[in-house]
Design goal:
With about 375 residues, the chain is mainly α. It is built from 15 helices and no strands. Helix 2 packs antiparallel against helix 14 and helix 7 packs antiparallel against helix 9. The chain starts with a helix and ends with a helix.
Length: about 375
């Protein structure tokens, strides 16, 4: 497969699209399902799936960063320039995340009492911060040498250090809006650096390994080997949930979603999903219209729009009012609408932009 040469891997787009669908169901069920139906195996299975989208986006951001550096190297971009470009991209994502919070606050009525919501550390914020950290701590020139080891070492430091950081004074330091990026809890720190950035560094490590394998014609072997390793990690993560098995003297942290066992389990499942996605894009007939790849290529757009549709004022009347079945129909309608928007963005929007530029050129020529 030459996807790395083109700058993308189809199975990564496919997997990002799967994360988008999981995100849709997580948010929609959370917003619309009435309280008396928030029980049972189906509901809790939905909640369990909801733990993967943010982690997948962070992990795949790390993989995409490695592919970006690979493209830069092919174009002869210097190591310093590649680093600056990655930092700039991370800051752009952070700015988009901040802008998103401001827009949400404004559409929600711009209440002064809720102004702190604009500073919430949400998933876009931490993706941006994580990309900046990866760019500064992992050198692009090391892709074919030490990058996997460096990224994995930082991953271990972030994940294993999280329980200690959470118990430190950093978690309550001031100004809170700033230290919320380091550690803390909701409602301000939804996705602090510890442990969430660990998923992006893990993505950098795996992306570098896959890139090396692709250059040697062994991408399938390494992808499936890491998928098998992922299954083992997932099993180990589940075993570590046993209260009799503790990694620290304060073993109560092991039940938290920020604990090392959660990282092992979730990352293991994600590696297995990468393997499944790799097989899927080879087994399924190749088609220009691939819903998952289309959603995967427009994940930022659909994230922004669907959150406003699900949690915004237009749907407040059905907030926590639907049965699980009715919410599932709403989920289907939302998914189809977002797919149509994503397709329009990829297929029609570039043409509109080109026609707009042509119109401006003609206007300038006749002026």
């Amino acid at each position: 497969m030459t996807g790395a040469t083109r700058g993308r891997w189809d199975h990564i787009d496919w997997l990002r699209g799967l994360a988008v669908l999981a995100m849709f169901q997580t948010h929609l069920y959370d917003a619309f399902v009435r309280d008396d139906e928030r029980t049972g195996s189906v509901w809790w299975s939905s909640r369990h799936v909801g733990g993967f989208p943010a982690r997948l986006f962070l992990f795949l951001a790390g993989v995409s960063l490695v592919l970006r550096w690979h493209r830069d190297a092919q174009r002869g971009v210097s190591d310093a320039a590649a680093t600056r470009g990655a930092v700039r991209r991370g800051l752009e994502v952070l700015a988009i995340g901040l802008a998103f919070r401001v827009v949400e606050w404004t559409l929600g009525g711009a209440h002064v009492g809720h102004a702190e919501e604009m500073l919430r550390v949400d998933v876009l914020n931490i993706i941006g911060v994580s990309l900046v950290a990866c760019a500064l701590l992992c050198r692009p020139v090391e892709i074919r040498r030490r990058l996997p080891l460096v990224a994995l070492t930082i991953t271990a430091l972030v994940i294993l250090g999280t329980p200690f950081v959470e118990l430190s004074t950093v978690a309550s330091a001031r100004p809170r809006w700033l230290f919320a990026y380091v550690a803390g809890e909701k409602p301000l720190a939804f996705f602090p650096f510890f442990p969430w950035a660990g998923y992006t560094f893990a993505g950098v490590a795996c992306g570098a390994l896959w890139l090396r394998a692709s250059a040697r014609g062994r991408l399938a072997h390494v992808t499936l080997a890491l998928a098998a390793l992922g299954v083992g990690m997932a099993i180990a993560g589940q075993l570590l949930r046993d209260p009799r098995v503790t990694l620290w003297s304060f073993g109560d942290n092991q039940a938290r979603v920020t604990g090392p066992n959660a990282f092992l389990y979730r990352t293991g499942v994600m590696l297995a999903l990468v393997g499944l996605a790799y097989l899927a894009v080879r087994v399924l007939p190749r088609s220009r219209f691939s819903p998952l790849r289309i959603l995967g290529k427009t994940s930022l757009l659909t994230y922004w729009i669907h959150v406003e549709l699900v949690y915004g004022h237009t749907t407040k009347s059905i907030y926590h009012q639907l049965s699980f079945g009715a919410a599932t129909l709403a989920l289907l309608a939302l998914s189809l609408a977002m797919l149509a928007l994503a397709w329009w963005r990829l297929e029609r929007w570039p043409g509109l932009l080109e026609r707009g530029r042509g119109w401006l050129r003609r206007a300038e020529e006749t002026a």
